[in-house]
Specification:
107 residues; mainly alpha; two-stranded antiparallel sheet; 5 helices; 42% helix; 4% strand; globular
């Protein structure tokens, strides 16, 4: 249900920020903090703006650390990179080319 809901709102004229807010509060339990909307939108835009480089294997744009809102941490840090954000918040519906595999960091 959650994936279909995200795909449904992604095809509307509703502003991206509102779509992401609905996604974060309606498709997860417990709900994600709405203060993540900003970093989620930035991550989507970074991916879409650099999609040609990503297709050619240059993932550097997805590795830049983005600051999280005060009081929010991801894996013990106050930043998240676009690749991690897209993965954990399941933002692939808003990517212009979902055929691209996002490079996962090796741990």
């Amino acid at each position: 249900m959650g994936r279909q809901y995200a795909e449904g709102i992604a095809t509307t004229d509703i502003p991206l920020e509102k779509q992401i807010k609905w996604h974060l509060t309606g498709n997860f339990y417990p709900r994600h903090d709405i203060r993540l909307v900003d970093v989620a939108v930035k991550s989507i835009n970074i991916f879409n703006d650099n999609k040609l480089d990503i297709l050619e294997g240059d993932y550097s744009s997805l590795e830049e650390e983005l600051s999280l809102a005060e009081g929010i941490e991801f894996r013990g840090k106050k930043t998240i990179n676009p690749s991690e954000c897209i993965e954990v918040l399941r933002l692939d519906t808003w990517l212009e080319d979902t055929e691209i595999e996002i490079k996962e960091e090796e741990e």
